[in-house]
Amino acid sequence: MNKEKYITDPRFKGIAPFAEKVWLSSPTMHGDEQKWVDEAIRTNWVSTVGENINEVERMTAEKVGCKYAVGLSSGTAALHLAMKLAGERLYGQPKVGHGTLEGKRVFCSDVTFSATVNPVAYEGGEAVFIDTEYDTWNMDPVALEKAFELYPEVKLIVLVHLYGTPGKIDEIKAIADKHGALIIEDAAESFGATYKGRQTGIFGDYGMISHNGNKIVTSSSSGMLLTNSKEDADKARKWSTQSREDASWYQHKEIGYNYRMSNITAGVLRGQLPYLDDHIAQKKEIYYRYKEGLKDLPVSMNPIPEDCESNYWLSCLLIDKNAMSNQVREEQEVHYVNEPGKSCPAEILEALMAFNAEGRPIWKPMHMQPIYRMNPFVIAEWSGRGKSNVYIIGDKCTDVGADIFERGLCLPSDNKMKTEEHDIIIDIIHRCFR
Ligand SMILES: *Cc1c(COP(=O)(O)O)cnc(C)c1O
Q1: 83-141 tens-digit pLDDT
Q2: Does ligand 1 lie within 6 Å of residue 75's CB atom?
Q3: What is the CATH classification number for the domain harbouring 301?
Q4: How far is the CA of 306 from the centre of ligand 1 (A)?
Q5: Is 287 a pocket residue for ligand 1 (Cβ < 6 Å)?
Q6: How far apart are CA 60 and CA 370, in angstroms?
Q7: Do residues 320 and 220 share a domain?
Q8: 125 lies in which domain range?
Q9: Single pTM value for the model
Q10: Whose Cα sits closest to atom 7 in ligand 1?
Q11: How many domains does the structure of the chain reveal?
């Protein structure tokens, strides 16, 4: 990208690039993290056992309101073990070398990070993507119901709460119950958010959160599996430590993984967890400052419904259809034209980058990804052009995920962003529409 193009553009006259980069969402340390990491090193408990792990598991279970939280090396590991637990429960233990979901279809959120759905493939399953609704930007229950008409044999649903806002949990649970399907809840981005007063991550049969570096609290890298079943928690712990049986030598009856959380990363997390609510409050303020600051533009913010409290992890923008300038995305490149009174995600993201602020496109829907675009994709309203894999951008668009990807973007949402910086970012966005 040519930064000079923006810096010399008369529309941006008088704006100077930020001396320090404003991030999308970066780690925020408070000091206690150091204390618990030092403690682990001082006492020589630096492996995958120790007080930090016990404490963060206890604190997390207490916060979300479930019986067991199992500390793992990443959110992806937590999703993989959730997939195995669900797969074994539904279809039994597979032969060695085979996945628990082999030959099985699994209904998955479509607008999400790839880590939500890759574990379906790790276990040999086929993801069927369910389109998104506009009310929460999550899985559309209408499309899900359609999917059960097309694939009545499906017994597993993977549901994400995108950008920290809970999806339509009651509706989706009712459909899952009706069809006897289990739910894996990917609350990687929504730790601390509530739906009708209860924390996300505990509505499904299996839940998980992530503490990856850009999430609302971080340990540098880890995740947790959430469950009320002691049996599942014990199994996940065992699988995560190479499936060792209770014997004096290495004895193995099952395939194992090296997925357990380390007592060092748990130390970082132990220092972070007490600040979860502070981080949410800061992110919430950022969201409402954008909402107020951008209200005169032909845009809307990512929707947050009344019956839930988001954790406001990322603030996002959706440009009105009639205010979109022409934008063409190739496989890896984007082109656009500048039109007065209009703008597009590519222009806003490039302008922000030119002034040293980081935004990001909306997560590109899974059904549009080269790796998954031949998988089935179910939308709520067909446009009459076939059974699946048809998306048409424009007035007749019924592919909600593609539409949000086309018109939406994630704004700089770092909780260390200063008010002055925030005002300039809001100003830059306004100038994009000139
Ligand atoms: C971050 C993220 C994950 C994966 O978590 P890691 O800890 O990075 O492995 C899974 N799902 C979603 C929706 C995420 O945003």
Answers
A1: 999 999 999 999 999 999 999 999 999 999 999 999 999 999 999 999 999 999 999 99
A2: yes
A3: 3.90.1150.10
A4: 26
A5: no
A6: 36
A7: no
A8: 32-274
A9: 0.95
A10: 75
A11: 2
